[in-house]
Amino acid sequence: MVYSAEKLEEEKVFKDPVHRYIHVRDRVIWDLIGTKEFQRLRRIKQLGTTFLTFHGAEHSRFNHSLGVYEIVRRIIDDVFDGRPEWKQEERLLTLCSALLHDLGHGPFSHSFEKVFDFDHEGFTQAIIIGDTEVNRVLAKVDPDFPKKVAEVIAKTSANKLVVSLISSQIDADRMDYLQRDAYFTGVSYGHFDMERILRVMRPKEDQVVIKKSGMHAVEDYIMSRYQMYWQVYFHPVSRGAEVILTKILHRAKHLYEQQYTFAHPPLHFYTIFNDQLTLQDYLKLDESVILYYFQMWQEEEDAVISDLCRRFVNRNLFKYAEFDPAKEYKKLAELNKLFVKAGLDPEYYLVVDSSSDLPYDFYRPGEEEERLPIHLLMKNGELKELSRESEVVDAISGKRRTDHKLYYPEDFLLDETSKKNIKRQIRALLEL
Ligand code: CA
Question: How far is CA 168 from CA 47, 153, 160, 375, in A?
Fold first, then answer.
């Protein structure tokens, strides 16, 4: 039997808290899960620093990737199979793309991307195309198959229908992470009727559309995404932890460039600092490695890196104030000066963080990021863009909300054993 069609003798099941079971029958999928690059995702948390706010949020990208695979498998096997607009020969391509879509995520992805300009999507491509176990499994299907999978994940594939299952405004990725993140954080948002949505999804030419009768389930999904963003993903405490993490990385790089002698040299960072990172080096990075350095750097002689690492490891985070960059730039400049006088480097200890989200967007051609809108399939076979039918969705469509916070170490500002007057001026400005 050809490898692409090979089935396991017995179905394998993973017990999953969100989908109950994840079913694997295809040999290719089973082999991909066993590769070291995929197993690495067990050591990368799905939500980065969020566990410091919601202690349950320790789930990994491995969990999430299996979940996305399972949702796509159910759409194909239970809903699409047999429909004239779906080509069953795309099944394996779609399943592999779903399983591997986050393969290139590194430890604390967002922070590393900010500080070192990492691009996890680029690494996903590199792992699939490069000299890896994942590549060897995919190439056994067909020498062109790795490239096809990479194109679906990069959204450059000509097969738009398959792309829209993996990434669109209502895709398997979002449906999994919303439910999974809600489950592990324990919040009551993030739940919606996925069973209903799956049953009303239809392949239609080059996209997945939703039967009109499922509109309310989709409204619920969009609202739950909106709430998850502001209640969980952009939680100001997690962002504060991310600020500290980012600053540790900045400081480590700075010290390295100043030829500071580390008590615990950043071996895993050398090629990053020198801009010579290879794929093999990247694959050695995971959160246990990074946390090891943070643990050790608590003992560094440099006061900034040791303080920041102690803060991260022991969860002694920065406090925050609301901040309006348009109106308060003078105040920020004033604070910067006072921080220097107080002996605190504002580069590391006075940080503005901004978060922004667009809950749902209709199609606006020519926009920098063209988002495929969600289309409803009407009884007469016509397609209608969701916000034209749904008043709820219309109310939040295309509206970007941005939130700015100013982070600082409150404990230091409250300590009056030194620079008492300057600290009082800072506290007055921050309205502490
Ligand atoms: Ca994902």
Answer: 20, 11, 10, 11
Domain residue ranges of the chain, discontinuous segments joined by +: 3-233, 236-355+404-430
**What is the DSSP code (8-state) at residue 373?**
P
Query: Residue 71: which residues within 8 A CB-CB, separation 6 or more?
Result: 19, 98, 172, 175, 176, 194, 198
Question: DSSP label at 79?
Answer: I
Question: Contact 291/315 with Cβ under 8 angstroms?
Answer: no
pLDDT in tens, 4-44: 999 999 999 999 999 999 999 999 999 999 999 999 999 99
In sequence order, what are the residues at sequence separation of 6 or more whose Cβ sits closer than 8 angstroms to the Cβ of residue 193? 217, 220
Contact between 8 and 27 under an 8 Å Cβ cutoff? The reply is yes
pLDDT digits (tens, 9 = 90+) for 216-248: 999 999 999 999 999 999 999 999 999 999 999
> How many Å apart are CA 283 and CA 14, to the nearest integer?
25
109 C-alpha vs ligand 1 centroid, how far in Å?
A: 12
The correct CATH number of 236-355+404-430 out of 3.30.420.40, 3.40.50.970, 1.20.1250.20, 1.20.1250.30 is: 1.20.1250.30
Distance from Cα 243 to the centre of ligand 1, integer Å: 22
* Cα 172 to averaged position of ligand 1 atoms, centre (Å): 9
In this prediction the pTM is: 0.95
Q: How far is the CA of 403 from the centre of ligand 1 (A)?
A: 23
In sequence order, what are the beta bridge partners of 207?
Answer: 204
Who's near 261: CB < 8 A, 6+ residues apart? none
Helix (H, G, I), strand (E, B) or coil at 431: coil
CA of 104 to the centre of ligand 1 (A): 11
Q: Collapse the DSSP code of 14 into the 3-class scheme (helix H, G, I; strand E, B; otherwise coil) and give the result.
A: strand
What span, in angstroms and rounded, lies between the C-alpha atoms of 204 and 160?
Answer: 10
Fold equal for 3-233 and 236-355+404-430: no
For ligand 1, the distance from its centroid to the CA atom of residue 125, given in whole angstroms, is: 14
Half-sphere exposure of 59 (CA within 13 A, CB side): 23
Cross-strand partners of 99: none
CATH number given to 3-233: 1.10.3210.10
